Amino acid sequence: MRLSLRQRRAAPDEPGLHGPVRVDPRTKNLTKRLRPGDVAVIDHLDIDRVSAEALAACRPAAVLNAARSTSGRYPNLGPDILLAAGIPLVDDLGPDVLTLTEGRHVRVLDGAVYDGDRVVAEGTVQDEATVAAAMEEARAGLAVQLESFAGNTMDYLRRERELLLDGVGVPDIETEIDGRQVLIVVRGYHYKEDLVALRHYVKEYRPVLIGVDGGADAILEVGWKPDMIVGDMDSVSDRALTCGAEVVVHAYRDGRAPGVERVEKLGVRHVVFPATGTSEDVAMLLADDKGAELIVAVGTHATLIEFLDKGRSGMASTFLTRLRVGSKLIDAKGVSRLYRQRISNWQLAWLVVAGLLALGVALAATAAGQTMFGLFFAWFDDVWSSVRGLFGGGA
């Protein structure tokens, strides 16, 4: 039963965490409006790394999860990231917590969520010990996920072999890709740092910039303009969709494309690409089919744990897509961490000063150097005398 607006707000001096709730079953939608001090209410089974990092960046007072943050399917990374950021995590609260009214002030104490005097839901407070135990249990079940991943891979190959092998179903596009390099941006791990590290590459080679859903906003954030946006259009902003980039809507294999309605409302021209895989797969296949010389990927999924962390059985398609693209693909993940400057600016400055002093000493030891220093000091003395005379300090 929903609470009346007349119910009292939790007093600040009552024990526990306090804050207004922001409720959304989809974590990536919630982070768009989550503010520091808010209490985030989600329904996210197996919180993945990207979602946890997005939540942590918003600095909520706490994260309340209706589902289990770690189900035991595989060792997901999200809960540990939230705890490392100092954000309390209450787990397995059940569907009742999702009935909280947006903006209502609640109190969280010992795993219980209070709206006024009423306990809305109770869950498990996660800490380092509980997360470590859950991760250990999940590692034991990883073999089952490996078998499932292999099965999904074969199933995808049977259903999409014509697309993978012959490019059947790839739509015609206006963007010129043939013979050019392509940079595909996904809002994945370390994408911000990697984009900064690729500034010189983009400036020199002028690659075709493809944003996968929210990756288009990531491109805009660093001051560039995407040439193309590929995705189901559920996490990209209106600003990106209307920036002039060509839009390719990723549709289900049966032709259903929920993202079409949104782009049509914005009056944006688009083409539809029906495919079973993920949107990042669609972007890679499109670039490859249209003759890209090289494909540089930022923020995409490359390892088995990342595939599982994404939480989709269809991530098997990414494995096969990478085999299809082959030697054209360069994964820029972690390029920002490949080299870190080991010499600080202060150290460089002292090095320059020491070099100048050494040069001065060497010159002073020669006849030519002594003559040069004599001329310099004579010139400096004349300048100093002129300055003193200008300000009334002369004789």
- Helical run tally: 16
Q: Return Rg in Å.
A: 29 Å
| Low-confidence blocks of residues | 1-8
Termini separation comes to 94 Å
Q: Number of domains in the coordinates? A: 3
Helix content: 40-55%
Strand content: 15-25%
| Overall 3D form | extended
In words, what does this structure look like?
By secondary structure, the protein is an alpha/beta fold. It folds into three domains: 122 residues, Glucose Oxidase, domain 1, CATH 3.50.30.10; 197 residues, no CATH class; 29 residues, no CATH class. It contains 16 helices and 15 strands. It has an eight-stranded mixed beta sheet, covered by helices on one side. A seven-stranded parallel beta sheet has the order 13-12-11-10-9-14-15, with helices on both faces. Helix 2 runs parallel beside helix 3, helix 11 runs parallel beside helix 13 and helix 15 crosses helix 16. The protein is extended, with a radius of gyration of 29 Å. The N and C termini lie far apart (94 Å). The N terminus is likely disordered.
Secondary-structure blueprint:
Layout: E1 17-23, H1 27-30, E2 39-42, H2 49-58, E3 62-65, H3 78-84, E4 89-91, E5 105-109, E6 112-115, E7 118-122, E8 124-125, H4 128-140, H5 142-166, E9 181-185, H6 191-197, H7 199-205, E10 208-212, H8 215-221, E11 228-231, H9 238-241, E12 246-251, H10 259-265, E13 270-274, H11 279-289, E14 294-298, H12 304-309, H13 316-325, E15 329-331, H14 335-338, H15 345-364, H16 367-390
Give structural attributes.
single chain, 395 residues, alpha/beta, Glucose Oxidase, domain 1, 3 domains, eight-stranded mixed beta sheet, 16 helices, extended, disordered N terminus
